[in-house]
Amino acid sequence: MRINPAHMILTAIAFTILSAPMLTMSGCSVWRDRPRLRKQEISMNEPVDQVPPVLLDALNEHHMLVMQAPHSGWSIAIDRDERIAIGTRLFITVRRPDASFMYPQAIVEKNLLTDIPSGTTLEVFVRLLDAHEKTEGKGYGLLTPVDRFED
Predict the structure, then answer these.
(1) Edge-to-edge strands of the sheet including 140-142?
(2) What is the rounded CA–CA span in Å between residue 87 and residue 98?
(3) I need a labelling partner for 80 at 20 to 30 A (CA). Which of 17, 23, 39, 99 fits?
(4) Percent of the chain, pLDDT > 70?
Protein backbone atom coordinates (compact mmCIF):
# COMPACT_ATOMS: atom_id res chain seq x y z
CA MET A 1 0.00 0.00 0.00
CA ARG A 2 1.44 3.30 -1.08
CA ILE A 3 0.88 6.49 0.98
CA ASN A 4 0.24 9.70 -0.89
CA PRO A 5 2.52 12.54 0.42
CA ALA A 6 -0.22 15.15 -0.16
CA HIS A 7 -2.59 13.03 1.94
CA MET A 8 -0.02 12.91 4.77
CA ILE A 9 0.40 16.70 4.74
CA LEU A 10 -3.37 17.28 4.83
CA THR A 11 -3.71 14.78 7.69
CA ALA A 12 -0.98 16.53 9.68
CA ILE A 13 -2.59 19.93 9.13
CA ALA A 14 -6.03 18.63 10.14
CA PHE A 15 -4.57 17.01 13.27
CA THR A 16 -2.82 20.25 14.25
CA ILE A 17 -5.96 22.33 13.78
CA LEU A 18 -8.23 19.90 15.60
CA SER A 19 -5.89 19.30 18.54
CA ALA A 20 -5.02 22.96 19.22
CA PRO A 21 -8.13 23.61 21.38
CA MET A 22 -7.27 20.58 23.49
CA LEU A 23 -3.99 22.23 24.56
CA THR A 24 -5.87 25.05 26.26
CA MET A 25 -8.02 22.59 28.21
CA SER A 26 -5.32 20.12 29.14
CA GLY A 27 -3.81 22.27 31.89
CA CYS A 28 -0.39 22.28 30.28
CA SER A 29 2.20 24.40 32.06
CA VAL A 30 2.35 27.02 29.33
CA TRP A 31 -1.17 28.16 30.21
CA ARG A 32 -0.85 27.62 33.94
CA ASP A 33 2.26 29.84 34.17
CA ARG A 34 0.92 32.75 32.13
CA PRO A 35 1.36 36.21 33.71
CA ARG A 36 -1.53 37.39 35.83
CA LEU A 37 -3.08 40.85 35.62
CA ARG A 38 -1.63 43.21 38.19
CA LYS A 39 -3.98 44.14 40.97
CA GLN A 40 -4.93 47.80 40.96
CA GLU A 41 -3.50 49.76 43.84
CA ILE A 42 -5.74 51.66 46.21
CA SER A 43 -4.25 54.63 47.97
CA MET A 44 -6.38 54.89 51.08
CA ASN A 45 -5.06 58.27 52.24
CA GLU A 46 -4.02 60.17 49.12
CA PRO A 47 -6.75 62.27 47.53
CA VAL A 48 -6.83 62.55 43.74
CA ASP A 49 -6.18 66.10 42.55
CA GLN A 50 -7.93 67.90 39.71
CA VAL A 51 -11.22 66.01 39.99
CA PRO A 52 -14.23 68.33 39.69
CA PRO A 53 -16.09 68.71 43.00
CA VAL A 54 -18.36 65.80 43.93
CA LEU A 55 -21.23 66.07 46.38
CA LEU A 56 -22.66 63.04 48.17
CA ASP A 57 -26.48 63.20 48.09
CA ALA A 58 -29.42 60.81 48.32
CA LEU A 59 -32.31 60.01 46.01
CA ASN A 60 -35.05 57.45 46.68
CA GLU A 61 -33.17 56.22 49.75
CA HIS A 62 -30.00 55.46 47.75
CA HIS A 63 -26.65 57.24 47.63
CA MET A 64 -26.19 59.57 44.68
CA LEU A 65 -23.00 61.29 43.58
CA VAL A 66 -23.31 64.71 41.96
CA MET A 67 -20.27 66.01 40.08
CA GLN A 68 -20.16 69.68 39.09
CA ALA A 69 -18.11 69.89 35.90
CA PRO A 70 -17.03 73.00 33.96
CA HIS A 71 -18.69 71.61 30.81
CA SER A 72 -20.45 68.55 29.44
CA GLY A 73 -17.30 66.75 28.25
CA TRP A 74 -16.54 65.30 31.68
CA SER A 75 -17.94 61.86 32.57
CA ILE A 76 -18.35 59.83 35.75
CA ALA A 77 -18.99 56.09 36.05
CA ILE A 78 -19.17 53.40 38.73
CA ASP A 79 -16.55 50.68 38.38
CA ARG A 80 -17.53 48.49 41.33
CA ASP A 81 -18.46 48.48 44.98
CA GLU A 82 -17.30 46.26 47.79
CA ARG A 83 -18.83 45.60 51.17
CA ILE A 84 -16.62 46.24 54.19
CA ALA A 85 -17.24 45.96 57.93
CA ILE A 86 -18.19 49.62 58.36
CA GLY A 87 -20.21 50.02 55.15
CA THR A 88 -19.39 50.08 51.45
CA ARG A 89 -16.48 51.23 49.31
CA LEU A 90 -17.46 52.66 45.95
CA PHE A 91 -14.92 52.83 43.12
CA ILE A 92 -15.57 55.35 40.36
CA THR A 93 -13.79 56.65 37.27
CA VAL A 94 -13.90 60.29 36.24
CA ARG A 95 -12.80 61.00 32.68
CA ARG A 96 -11.51 64.29 31.33
CA PRO A 97 -13.09 65.66 28.16
CA ASP A 98 -11.92 64.52 24.73
CA ALA A 99 -9.52 67.24 23.53
CA SER A 100 -10.56 66.74 19.89
CA PHE A 101 -14.03 68.18 20.61
CA MET A 102 -15.18 71.65 21.56
CA TYR A 103 -17.61 72.00 24.45
CA PRO A 104 -19.65 75.05 25.42
CA GLN A 105 -18.39 76.59 28.64
CA ALA A 106 -21.34 75.92 30.95
CA ILE A 107 -21.29 74.40 34.41
CA VAL A 108 -23.15 71.09 34.37
CA GLU A 109 -24.05 68.59 37.05
CA LYS A 110 -23.51 64.90 36.36
CA ASN A 111 -25.63 62.67 38.60
CA LEU A 112 -24.67 59.10 39.39
CA LEU A 113 -27.26 57.09 41.31
CA THR A 114 -26.02 53.98 43.13
CA ASP A 115 -27.92 50.98 44.45
CA ILE A 116 -26.33 51.48 47.89
CA PRO A 117 -28.88 52.42 50.59
CA SER A 118 -28.41 55.98 51.86
CA GLY A 119 -28.19 54.73 55.47
CA THR A 120 -24.99 52.81 54.65
CA THR A 121 -21.62 54.42 55.38
CA LEU A 122 -19.93 55.10 52.06
CA GLU A 123 -16.24 55.53 51.22
CA VAL A 124 -15.62 56.75 47.67
CA PHE A 125 -12.42 56.06 45.73
CA VAL A 126 -11.78 57.70 42.38
CA ARG A 127 -9.35 57.53 39.51
CA LEU A 128 -9.00 60.37 37.02
CA LEU A 129 -8.30 59.38 33.42
CA ASP A 130 -8.09 61.09 30.06
CA ALA A 131 -10.99 60.55 27.64
CA HIS A 132 -9.54 57.45 25.95
CA GLU A 133 -6.95 56.36 28.50
CA LYS A 134 -6.87 52.64 29.32
CA THR A 135 -7.77 51.62 32.86
CA GLU A 136 -5.16 48.88 33.25
CA GLY A 137 -2.76 49.56 36.09
CA LYS A 138 -4.47 52.79 37.09
CA GLY A 139 -5.03 53.02 40.82
CA TYR A 140 -7.66 54.76 42.89
CA GLY A 141 -7.35 57.50 45.46
CA LEU A 142 -9.64 58.66 48.21
CA LEU A 143 -12.33 61.11 47.12
CA THR A 144 -13.32 63.72 49.64
CA PRO A 145 -16.87 64.86 48.78
CA VAL A 146 -17.69 68.54 49.17
CA ASP A 147 -20.43 69.79 51.50
CA ARG A 148 -21.84 72.13 48.88
CA PHE A 149 -20.89 73.59 45.50
CA GLU A 150 -19.36 77.04 45.18
CA ASP A 151 -21.67 79.72 43.78
Answers:
(1) 42-47, 140-142, 122-129, 87-95, 75-84
(2) 35
(3) 99
(4) 76
